Amino acid sequence: MANQEVHIVKPVYVWEVPVRIFHWINALALVALAATGYLIGNPPALLTNLEAYDGYWFGTVRFIHFGSAYLFLFNWVYRVYWAFVGNQYARWNTFLPVTKAQWQEVGQVLVIDLFMAKQGEIKSVGHNALASMIYLVLFGASIFSILTGFALYAPMSSSLIPGFFAWFGGFFESEMTLRYWHHVAMWFYALFVIVHVYLVAYHDYVEARGVLSSMVGGWKFIFQKKG
Ligand code: HEM
Ligand code: HEM
After folding, report:
1. Does residue 64 lie in a domain region?
2. Number of domain units in the chain
3. Element (H, E) at 187
4. Residue 215 covered by a domain
């Protein structure tokens, strides 16, 4: 966007309250799940002079993992519902790259992101086509973590919800393999978060449309040439 030209800036209300609430609950739950999951997979041998029955830190770590797991599950259910009733930027079809224009935008954004090259204005006002595709992959990964996580949880819980997922464990050779793949998925989120936060900040700069703050206030800004 050339600074010298005169533009009219038009605010567009892009992210409704439910999308923003989903976003931040999802971010919080994911960080809690990854941190506690990492500790469950690599428990440090802590030495303490407490009586054994007074030290319950690992139980607390697991409690946070399982509590966040329910939050993560219901938050996704809520987002899927919103994909059918929310505004055009939150709709399910924005996440499916099916049109030629979407694929062209995927190429355009890849060039901007990988080569830091100027490629003209990005047409999408909501998620750009590449971002949408990545969020779809994140959704798939989240379903995978929910299925493997609750399948791991089922034998140690008498609650109703984990029981619904017990069948998924049957696809794995042993509980160890199930646990292994549940663990592997965590590294995908670590990669996603680093790239996502960087790209949101980078697009805030290249687009100059208020991307970074849009997930807080809901607004983005589009430029229209004057006259
Ligand atoms: C664990 C950390 C995070 C996760 C898992 C995450 C995940 C997501 C997801 C799933 C979306 C799509 C939202 C939807 O359509 O419902 C999204 C969009 C977005 N996120 Fe995050 N996010 C994280 C952290 C952050 C942070 C720290 C920021 C900084 C402000 C941020 C800013 C945004 C913005 C601005 C968008 C919309 C960007 C676009 O138009 O594509 N996110 N994020
Ligand atoms: C989506 C994000 C999630 C991440 C990043 C994550 C990560 C992890 C990791 C790394 C482990 C350790 C695996 C190992 O032993 O090496 C673990 C264990 C486990 N996770 Fe998750 N998890 C997630 C979601 C869930 C969900 C939704 C559930 C559902 C209840 C769940 C239930 C479990 C259970 C039952 C264990 C084994 C705990 C134990 O034996 O003490 N996780 N998780």
Report:
1. no
2. 1
3. helix 175-207
4. yes
Q: Let me know if residue 62 belongs to a domain.
A: no
Q: pTM of this prediction?
A: 0.93
Can you tell me which atom of ligand 2 is nearest the CA of 72?
27
What residues make up the domain containing 125? 7-29+69-225
**Distance (Å, rounded) from C-alpha 160 to C-alpha 166?**
11
Q: Is the CB of 34 under 6 A from ligand 2?
A: yes
- Residue labelled with tokens 């008498």: 158
Instruction: For ligand 2, say whether the CB of 149 is within 6 Å of any of its atoms.
Output: yes
202 is a domain residue: yes
Give the separation between CA 218 and CA 182, rounded to whole angstroms: 33
pLDDT tens, per residue, the chain with 227 residues: 555 667 788 999 999 999 999 999 999 999 999 999 999 999 998 888 888 888 889 999 999 999 999 999 999 999 999 999 999 999 999 999 999 999 999 999 999 999 998 888 899 999 999 999 999 999 999 999 999 999 999 999 999 999 999 999 999 999 999 999 999 999 999 999 999 999 999 999 999 999 999 999 999 999 887 65
